[in-house]
Design brief:
The chain has 16 helices and 16 strands. It is α/β, with parallel strands linked by helices. Strands 5, 6, 7, 8, 9, 10, 11, 12, 13 and 14 form a ten-stranded mixed β-sheet that branches. A four-stranded mixed β-sheet has the order 1-2-4-3. Helix 1 packs across helix 5, helix 8 packs parallel to helix 15 and helix 14 runs parallel beside helix 15.
Length: 456
C-alpha cells in the first residue's frame, strides 16, 4: 500500500502543511498512481478532522491551516512584544495560549491520517521506519558552550542568584567548591567529565560554540563571553571524541547575516570543517527570518525554536521538520526543535534541585517517545559545583543513563537531519511479490532499510 498526495488548487502553504503531515505519518508515498494506492487530498477550508470521502482520505482545511500556522510561528511573527533579551515571550506562542505547550499536536494529526488510510485499505500498510536500527524514538543531546574563560564571573553571577533565593546551603557548597578550584580549570574539568559520561554510553552529541568577538559590554550582557581561540583545546577534544560542533550565534547574528557569516567562518576555521548546525544564544531570534539567514549561509539544520522558560513543543511537533516561510516557500533548512533545557527550570522558574530537572526532562521525553519522535535536550557544560551548581553533574549522568535505558537512537542534530531528509525523499516505485513497497531515491535508485521490520 502507498499514498498519493493530490494538491490541485491548494496554496503553497497548504501543500507544505500536507507534506509535513505525510512525512510525520510515515506512510510510504508515490508520485504516480499505482496499485494499492490511496489518494490523499484536502477538504474545504472550514472542514475539520481527517476522514474518508469517495474512497479518498481527506484532510480538513482547518487541520492544514493549524499545521501551517504552528510550523510558521504565525502568532509570534505578527506580534511586536519582546522580552529584555529580544525574544518573543512564550505567552505569545500559539501552543502556550491554547494550553497545549507539551502536546505533539501535529503528530496526532499524522496518526489520524495514518488511521484513515488504514481504514480505506482495510488494514495498516507497512510504514517507513521512524528511526534507524529499529529504534522507536530518537534523542539529540546538545550542549551550549557559554563559558570558557573568566569562570569566576560565572560563579559570581550564580552566587548572587542563589543568595537572592535564600539557597544558603547550595551557596555554601558552591563557594567551597569555587575556592577549591582557584588556580585550576573547572570549566575544562566539567566538560571532560561530561564527555566521559557520553563516551561510556557511545553517545555523539552536538556542541554549540560561540565565535564572536567578546567585549567588556558583551561579557557583562552574557552575550559573547570568550574568544574562539581560548576554546581551541576544548574544540579539539570535542571533535576528536566524535561529537558535532555547531554555531552558537551571538545576539547580533539574530538579525545580521553578515555577522552570522563572520562567526560561522571563524568557527569553521577553528574546527577545520564545515559547520552545519546552528542555535542562537539565549534562543534569541526573529522567527523564521533568523533561520532564513542560516539557510542562506549553508546551514542544514537549526535547533533554536523552543521555550527558554519551560519544556515544550513550540512548533506543536516533537520531530525534525523542514521549514518554510509564511507563504509556504521552502527555507532550505530543517528545524530540530528544542524540547527541554536545564536552565529553564533553575534560572527562569527557580527550581534548584537537579533531580527535579531530570524528572521534568524525562517527563517530556516520555511524551516524545509516545509518538516515536525526536527529543532534543540541552545541558550546559558549565553546570558544575565550582560554577554554582552542586549535584548537577551526577544528575546529568543519571539523566543520560535513564534516557539510554529507553533505547532511543542517539544522534547529533545533523545526523538526524541527514537521515530524515533522505527518508522524506523516498518514493514507492513498485511492490514486492508479498506486497511490500519498493522504495527508490529521487534518482530512481532502489533504497533498502527504510521500511518497518513489522507492521505498526
Amino acid at each position: 500500500m502507498t499514498v498519493l498526495a493530490v494538491t490541485d488548487g491548494l496554496s503553497p502553504l497548504d501543500c507544505y502543511a500536507m507534506d509535513v503531515l505525510l512525512d510525520l505519518s510515515r506512510l510510504p508515498r508515490t508520485d504516480r498512481m499505482l496499485d494499492n494506492t490511496t489518494v490523499v487530498t484536502a477538504g474545504p477550508p472550514g472542514a475539520t478532522g481527517i476522514g474518508l470521502a469517495d474512497g479518498r482520505v481527506v484532510i480538513g482545511g482547518v487541520v492544514l491551516s493549524e499545521t501551517a500556522s504552528l510550523l510558521t510561528l504565525a502568532a509570534e511573527r505578527t506580534g511586536s512584544v519582546r522580552d529584555a533579551r529580544g525574544r518573543v515571550p512564550a505567552a505569545f506562542n500559539a501552543m502556550v495560549t491554547s494550553g497545549r505547550s507539551l502536546e505533539p499536536v501535529l503528530q496526532h494529526h499524522a496518526a489520524a491520517l495514518r488511521d484513515a488510510v488504514a481504514q480505506a485499505r482495510g488494514g495498516m500498510p507497512t510504514l517507513l521506519a521512524p528511526w534507524p536500527g529499529g529504534a522507536r524514538w530518537a534523542v539529540a543531546l546538545t550542549h551550549d558552550l557559554d563559558l570558557v574563560r573568566w569562570w569566576g564571573l560565572g560563579y559570581a553571577a550564580r552566587s548572587l542568584e542563589l543568595l537572592r533565593r535564600g539557597e544558603w546551603r547550595r551557596w555554601r557548597r558552591a563557594t567551597g567548591a569555587a575556592l577549591g578550584a582557584i588556580g585550576g580549570r573547572p570549566v575544562f574539568a566539567a566538560i571532560e567529565r561530561l564527555l566521559q559520561v557520553e563516551a561510556e554510553l557511545g553517545i555523539a552529541s552536538t556542541w554549540f560554540v560561540m565565535a564572536g568577538s567578546p567585549t567588556f559590554r558583551s561579557v557583562l550582557a552574557g552575550d559573547v563571553t570568550y574568544p574562539i581561540g581560548s576554546a581551541q583545546a576544548i574544540l579539539e577534544r570535542i571533535r576528536d571524541s566524535g561529537h558535532e560542533i555547531g554555531l552558537h550565534g551571538s545576539f547580533a547574528t539574530a538579525g545580521s547575516v553578515e555577522v552570522m557569516r563572520d562567526e560561522r567562518d571563524r568557527l569553521s576555521q577553528a574546527v577545520e570543517a564545515p559547520v552545519q548546525a546552528s542555535r542562537q544564544h539565549f534562543l534569541r531570534m526573529t522567527p523564521l527570518a533568523t533561520q532564513r539567514q542560516a539557510a542562506s549561509l549553508g546551514f542544514s539544520v537549526d535547533s533554536t525554536i523552543g521555550y527558554y522558560d519551560r519544556p515544550g513543543l513550540r512548533l506543536g511537533v516533537a520531530d525534525l521538520v523542514p521549514l518554510a516561510d509564511e507563504a509556504g516557500a521552502p527555507l532550505g533548512i530543517a528545524e530540530a526543535p528544542l524540547v527541554w533545557m536545564d536552565r529553564a527550570s533553575s534560572k527562569y522558574r527557580g527550581v534548584e534541585s537537579p533531580a527535579a530537572w531530570v524528572d521534568e526532562a524525562l517527563a517530556s521525553a516520555r511524551v516524545v517517545e509516545s509518538v516515536e519522535g525526536l527529543w532534543v535536550g540541552l545541558w550546559h557544560p558549565n553546570l558544575a559545583a565550582p560554577l554554582g551548581f552542586p549535584d548537577a553533574e551526577p544528575a546529568f549522568a543519571d539523566l543520560v543513563a535513564r534516557l539510554a535505558a529507553r533505547t532511543p537512537w542517539f544522534a547529533t542534530v545533523s545526523q538526524v537531519a541527514a537521515w530524515r531528509d533522505r527518508r522524506r525523499r523516498l518514493r514507492v516505485h513498485g511492490f514486492e511479490p508479498d506486497g511490500r513497497p519498493i522504495l527508490a531515491d529521487p534518482a530512481g535508485v532502489r533504497v533498502d532499510g527504510f521500511l518497518e521490520a513489522r507492521a505498526a
